[in-house]
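Box S1 | Example of a co-folding query
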Amino acid sequence: MKATSKSYVSKTVRELKPSGIRRFFDLAAGMEGVISLGVGEPDFVTPWPVREAAIRSIEEGYTSYTPNAGLPELREEITKYVKNRYHVEYSPSEVIVTVGASSAIDTAMRTILDPGDEVIVVEPCFVSYGPMVTLAGGVPVPVQALKENDFKILPSQIEAAITDKTKALMICFPNNPTGTLLNKQELEALAEVIKKHDLLVISDEIYAELTYDEEFTSMASLPGMRERTILVNGFSKAFAMTGWRLGFVCAPKEILKEMLKVHQYALMCASTTSQYAGLEALRNGREDVDKMVKSYRLRRNFIVNSFNEMGLTCHMPGGAFYAFPSIESTGLSSQEFAERLLKEEGVAVVPGDVFGESGEGHIRCSYATSMEELREAMKRIKRFINSL
Ligand code: PLP
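Box S1 (continued) | Returned holo structure for pyridoxal-5'-phosphate
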């Protein structure tokens, strides 16, 4: 039998669509003078003491594997951090240090799902959630947070999507791409539905440090939720450490013990050098985080006001570093808008539809970009709107 290369690849993987963000950035690659509001990562370099700690660990010869779950002192530090910042208590044996929040979510899905199990995924959302559910043999069930609710998901919407196959709810607040934050009361209302239907929650709290008006509440801190929450967090966004690939997951012992098997067979452990960097970030990184948050807040205010002034309605995002203005008034689809804006004015943004159906009619603009570039980008976007 003559095999084609296609037949070597699983049907599941063949049918996965590549990330809409990547497709768009291939267009931008090679163009000169482009200002990118596209990438979801801090424009800051990792704070120097954190880099120095990593260098020191190499100099001292810490170059072998760590325990599968991560360095004991780092896990200990993570438990202190989660307790002090988010008011949830875990023991170090309830923590795994992961390869970014990404591997924490992937490991969670592979641990909890049997074939055909459903995971309700609140959209618009980070592009990986649905595919991670699919790759773990589950079925993602998208539920749309709506712009008329400032992209806050309502408990009634979740309840309406629950079937006897539903295993878990996947949420992320502050949200990528909308920046929306749910306050404590709103999370509590969601938690009631979760408890009533005996579901798990995978709570991606990667943007927890980046909130600007209201305090962040962790899903796991709510009454009766610690035992049914897989809390995902990491170093990428708060500590400007995207390239170090370091995250963590906290979960009740019985779940974590099973997750550790998946993590151990698939990944062995997170990078040793990165773990030493993470240790320093948690021990001494607070001042740097506060400085970065202060800077993001100024940029958020500037970019959101600019969009509203030029007639692109934009709600004030409570967290993360994304503005998600509506471009409906232009009559263009989000794909058309983003492609034309890139070609005509050299500004790269992400079309909202790549994050889910209710993202259509919007664009995602990251303001983790210098003020100077943001000013120039806003000038160009305004010129583009006026030319339509
Ligand atoms: N979760 C969300 C909501 C994100 O926006 C991202 C990255 O953009 C990630 C997870 C991935 O984070 P990490 O770099 O820790 O894997």
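The chain has a mean pLDDT of 96. The CA atoms of residues 336 and 351 lie 8 Å apart.
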